[in-house]
Inverse folding.
């Protein structure tokens, strides 16, 4: 599978764009299934994604977005609502570093649900049309640290006891690397590091507790000839430089409503780093009409015409209730659009 | 620097030890409780809020200031209650049903406290009925609703609808916030206000009670 940047550049030379919305949950409606079932059963997981690929033919298809995989594999209490993504129960109070020793003793990469995601990637690689890139997610080291010790505690630790947080992030990175290796061996063409908690940090904390560690994930991806993408929800504008410094191949950016000026970001970064985004996943595409979706997508595409390194996508994962007609409108508009340079 | 100036600076710096020391010093000197609030805690947290909005500090720095302020307020709270000191206002805050995220809500609660509000934290995964019960019980001026998921943000509208059904809608101002929300969405669901972050939530709440 060719690298994402090569695909992007090739299409741009033909005045076209790669179209790859962050699309997962609406598939369970199509399959008359549930998020809970799909996130726990790899065959069901593949089945629902296959329906998406069949119907919408995206250029890249990721597994269902799930920030609980690694945390759950570490034994953290996880809830599985029928129609929402699995959620890790919040931890409160000060973190005892002795707990890290206990977590270290867990055979993390033997966890059945984690291996289920790996099997899903295998099925995707074996069965999707060859032109569809297979994507997987891993949780970012700082976000995973926050899931283990509590998001508030992680924030406090960043300010009060950064050396302690370094140790925790080094541990979470080891976990993420193990999971990443399995996903790459299963055939993932791209791995996206989900670091939503990163948006709460200033750029020097972000560099210390995320970007520096994500470099290791990037190296692993590159050794496997796969791409690595960084996704930070919300207004990540102040973090762009540090995200790029990690060596990732692409930045997946949240919407204008979240505060992200995607063209502004594209102007500041090298054109060998792909920019992915950023239609709002919670407004027009959920509540508007297909015509309104077409208008908004066209406007977004138009604003990015001069940038070779752009992939049309959504700012974050589309919710379950996204109308399928609107997803079709998104895809068709993206496919039919001709870049004017 | 006066004792209250040092208290204010200690809140800004997030120095919990000094906040405790200087809160006690101010009390020992016989400083009026309202003065400790108005010239120590509140302006300190206002500076923190302004720095956050100007992107000079981020959540970790805001958290340590808020924690330091909370530590000092623990000494002051019982004294304020005993003396019957009127607070700026009363807020019930919580994350809606189905949502377990609390860091945003907690930060807002701390900023509101730092702005002089009495805050009743309902926690996470809170049903509409529980919010109704709390508002009735506390007679709060403001209800703050938080949601961090696209799947739970629709619960906010349900809460507003329940308040309408129970005839309580005009008894309380409802402000909303959370990552998937926007000012537009808040207007659509007929909330009274929206804030994109903890600092502006406190400013918005102050406007609503003034």
């Amino acid at each position: 599978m060719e690298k994402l940047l090569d695909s992007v550049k090739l299409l741009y030379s033909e005045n076209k764009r790669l179209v790859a919305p962050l699309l997962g949950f609406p598939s369970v409606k199509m399959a008359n299934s549930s998020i809970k079932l799909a996130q726990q059963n790899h065959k069901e997981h593949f089945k629902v994604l296959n329906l998406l690929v069949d119907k919408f033919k995206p250029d890249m298809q990721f597994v269902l977005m799930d920030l609980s995989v690694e945390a759950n594999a570490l034994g953290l209490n996880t809830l599985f609502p029928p129609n929402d993504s699995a959620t890790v129960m919040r931890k409160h109070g000060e973190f005892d570093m002795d707990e890290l020793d206990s977590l270290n003793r867990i055979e993390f990469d033997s966890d059945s649900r984690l291996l289920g995601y790996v099997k899903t990637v295998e099925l995707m690689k074996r069965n999707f049309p060859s032109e569809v890139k297979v994507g997987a997610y891993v949780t970012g080291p700082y976000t995973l640290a926050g899931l283990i010790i509590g998001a508030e505690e992680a924030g406090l630790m960043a300010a009060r006891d950064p050396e302690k947080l370094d140790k925790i992030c080094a541990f979470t990175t080891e976990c993420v690397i193990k999971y990443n290796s399995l996903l790459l061996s299963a055939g993932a063409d791209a791995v996206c590091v989900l670091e939503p908690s990163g948006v709460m940090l200033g750029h020097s904390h972000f560099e210390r507790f995320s970007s520096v560690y994500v470099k290791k994930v990037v190296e692993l991806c590159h050794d496997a000839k796969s791409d690595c993408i960084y996704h930070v929800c919300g207004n990540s504008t102040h973090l762009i430089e540090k995200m790029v410094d990690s060596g990732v191949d692409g930045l997946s950016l949240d919407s204008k409503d979240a505060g992200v000026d995607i063209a502004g970001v594209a102007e500041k970064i090298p054109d060998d780093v792909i920019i992915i985004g950023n239609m709002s996943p919670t407004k027009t595409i959920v509540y508007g009409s297909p015509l309104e979706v077409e208008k908004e997508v066209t406007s977004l595409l138009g604003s990015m015409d001069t940038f070779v390194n752009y992939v049309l996508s959504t700012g974050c994962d589309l919710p379950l209730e996204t109308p399928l007609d609107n997803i079709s409108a998104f895809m068709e508009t993206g496919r039919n659009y001709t870049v004017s340079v | 620097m006066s004792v209250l100036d040092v208290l204010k600076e200690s809140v800004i710096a997030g120095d919990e030890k000094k906040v405790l020391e200087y809160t006690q010093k101010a009390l020992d000197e016989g400083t009026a409780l309202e003065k400790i609030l108005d010239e120590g805690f509140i302006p300190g947290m206002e500076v923190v809020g302004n720095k956050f909005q100007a992107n000079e500090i981020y959540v970790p720095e805001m958290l340590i200031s808020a924690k330091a302020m909370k530590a000092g307020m623990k000494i002051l709270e019982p004294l304020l209650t005993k003396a019957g000191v009127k607070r700026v206002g009363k807020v019930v805050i919580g994350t809606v049903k189905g949502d377990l995220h609390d860091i945003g809500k907690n930060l807002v609660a701390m900023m509101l406290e730092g702005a002089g509000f009495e805050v009743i934290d309902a926690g996470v995964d809170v049903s509409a009925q529980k919010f109704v019960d709390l508002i009735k019980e506390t007679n709060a001026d403001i209800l703050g609703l938080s949601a961090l998921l696209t799947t739970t943000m629709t619960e906010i509208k349900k809460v507003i609808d329940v308040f309408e059904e129970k005839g309580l809608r005009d008894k309380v101002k409802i402000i909303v916030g959370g990552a998937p929300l926007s000012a537009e969405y808040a207007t659509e669901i007929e909330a009274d206000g929206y804030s994109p972050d903890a600092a502006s939530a406190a400013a918005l709440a102050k406007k609503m009670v003034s």
About this structure: The first strand of chain B starts at residue 89 and ends at 96. Strands of chain B lie at 89-96, 117-126, 142-146, 173-177, 193-194. Chain B has a mean pLDDT of 94.
